[in-house]
Design a protein that fits this description.
176 residues; mainly alpha; 7 helices; rod-shaped
Length: 176
């Protein structure tokens, strides 16, 4: 999740220069040599220009937006694991809590006369420990998820800005 891996600055500069020079063959080569989300969006636009004889602005925009959405989903998908863990960990802690309480009160329910405080305390202890571990895992995961979610939003915004710049140049370039 680095801006250099989503929209490499050097690649963007080279792409802008090549599109301005109307050298789409070199633009394609640059994108092939430097695979990244920006290159994928540009390649989708170039494929549209090459494969559709009368490619209009709306079609070109649609092709770029569709690939941009796929790339944004792929970038965002890298953070989803943290959210999954942060969601599941407290549930596992809750399960441990319920099992611990079941153990504690099950011993009392089976024979009130022989119920020992040690058995009751062990069940309650298990309940508390599993809850603590669930929260120890979930809280940092949520913090990291929030951090990376904001970072992903910035990366996607940078991708949109760079793609818009390239698309504008492709649309306004002189036709050969």
């Amino acid at each position: 999740l680095r801006s250099g891996s989503v929209t490499p600055r050097e690649l963007l500069i080279d792409l802008v220069a090549r599109v301005r020079a109307n050298d789409l063959t070199e633009v394609r080569r640059l994108c092939d040599r430097h695979p990244c989300p920006l290159a994928s969006v540009v390649l989708a636009a170039l494929d549209c220009l090459r494969n559709v004889p009368q490619c209009d602005v709306a079609l070109l925009r649609g092709a770029a937006e569709a690939e941009g959405a796929r790339q944004a989903d792929a970038i965002q998908g890298q953070t989803e694991f943290l959210l999954d863990v942060a969601t599941i960990a407290p549930l596992l802690g809750l399960l441990g809590t319920v099992l611990g309480m079941l153990t504690a009160f099950g011993s009392v329910a089976s024979d009130v006369a022989s119920a020992k405080p040690v058995v009751l305390a062990a069940g309650v202890s298990q309940a508390i420990v599993t809850t603590i571990f669930g929260l120890i895992v979930a809280i940092p995961c949520m913090v990291f998820y929030a951090y990376f979610r904001r970072r992903v939003s910035r990366m996607v915004a940078l991708l949109e800005i760079a793609a818009t710049e390239i698309m504008t140049l492709l649309i306004t370039r002189p036709r050969a």
